[in-house]
């Protein structure tokens, strides 16, 4: 898959929400003005500023973890499409990768993205790596303690082409690649969370998840904008036998 297709979502929305330059604030186009107005009204953008999250998307993961109990101290987690690092910020805290809680197990966070990711204490980043490339899967396995993960999470997405069906198919292909990754590194009993834009091939991902996991849920966090077609598919209790060998 070409780099233009697989570019992961270091969303301009996230960057602008945190760093609105004077030039951006003086946006000339109607679309930019509408976008800026929405950002100013968005309570998650304001709270992200207040709590020093790199992007409002942090609240999607926080909400899903609160409801679905995905993360625990000591977990080894792969954050797919990690840029700009908001999900990794949540993960560092939830799995205790900095060891701030001396009574809890210390976890490990590995973030991967095709784009640059600014360093984050408590996380190891693999920037400029294509998650659809088997070579990236090998790098991930080499960096994971014992070569295995307890949880894989993904908020990645391709660059939007404006063609809904094409964008949907591209994201489906990316999710299928992550399922291949789960076969090689996810522990039996582990969890898998991925974003998908709901569409005609969503059931293909659901079927693949049912084959690999004992429990499948579809989640739409409140922090996900109502007009967005994004949903999250959560597989729990991985049946993987290969990773156990």
Structural key phrases:
2 domains, seven-stranded mixed β-sheet, 245 residues, alpha/beta, Rossmann fold
What is the second-level CATH architecture of the largest domain? Answer: 3-Layer(aba) Sandwich
Stretches where pLDDT is under 50 for at least 5 consecutive residues are 1-27
Q: DSSP strand (E) fraction?
A: 15-25%
Radius of gyration: 18 Å
Outline type: globular
Helix content: 40-55%
CATH fold-type name of the largest domain: Rossmann fold
Multimerization state: single chain
Domain unit count: 2
Count, helices:
10
Largest sheet: 7 strands, mixed
CATH domain class name of the largest domain: Alpha Beta
Number of strands: 7
SSE string, helices as H and strands as E: HHHHHHEHEEHEHEHEE
Mean pLDDT: 85
CATH homologous superfamily (4th level) name of the largest domain:
Vaccinia Virus protein VP39
Q: Strand order across the biggest sheet? A: 3-2-1-4-5-7-6
Task: Tell me the span between the first and last alpha carbons.
Answer: 30 Å
Structural class: alpha/beta
Describe this structure in words.
The chain has 245 residues and is α/β, with parallel strands linked by helices. The protein folds into two domains: 11-41, no CATH class; 54-238, 3-Layer(aba) Sandwich (Rossmann fold), CATH 3.40.50.150. Helix content is 40%, strand content 19%. The protein contains ten helices and seven strands. It has a seven-stranded mixed beta sheet with strand order 3-2-1-4-5-7-6, sandwiched between helices. β4 (149-154), α9 (164-185) and β5 (186-197) form a beta-alpha-beta unit. The longest helix is centred in the C-terminal third of the chain and has 22 residues, at 164-185. It is globular, with a radius of gyration of 18 Å.
């Amino acid at each position: 898959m070409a780099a233009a297709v697989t570019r992961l979502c270091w969303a301009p929305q996230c960057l602008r929400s945190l760093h609105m330059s004077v030039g951006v604030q003086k946006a000339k186009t109607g679309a930019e003005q509408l976008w800026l107005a929405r950002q100013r009204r968005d309570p998650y953008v304001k709270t992200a500023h207040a709590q020093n999250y790199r992007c409002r998307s942090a609240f999607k993961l926080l909400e899903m973890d609160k409801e679905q109990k995905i993360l625990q101290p000591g977990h080894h987690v792969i954050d797919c499409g990690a840029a700009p690092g908001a999900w990794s910020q949540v993960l560092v805290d939830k799995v205790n990768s900095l060891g701030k809680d001396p009574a809890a197990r210390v976890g490990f966070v590995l973030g991967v993205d095709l784009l640059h990711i600014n360093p984050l204490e408590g996380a190891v980043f693999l920037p400029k790596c294509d998650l659809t490339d088997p070579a990236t899967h090998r790098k991930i396995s080499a960096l994971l303690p014992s070569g295995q993960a307890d949880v894989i999470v993904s908020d990645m997405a391709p660059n939007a082409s404006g063609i809904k069906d094409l964008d949907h198919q591209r994201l489906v292909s990316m999710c299928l690649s992550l399922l291949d990754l789960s076969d090689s590194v996810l522990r039996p009993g582990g969890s898998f969370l991925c974003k998908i834009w709901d569409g005609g091939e969503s059931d293909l991902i659901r079927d693949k998840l049912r084959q690999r996991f004992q429990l499948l849920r579809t989640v739409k966090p409140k922090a996900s904008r109502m007009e967005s077609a994004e949903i999250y598919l959560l597989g729990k209790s991985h049946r993987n036998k290969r990773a156990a060998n």
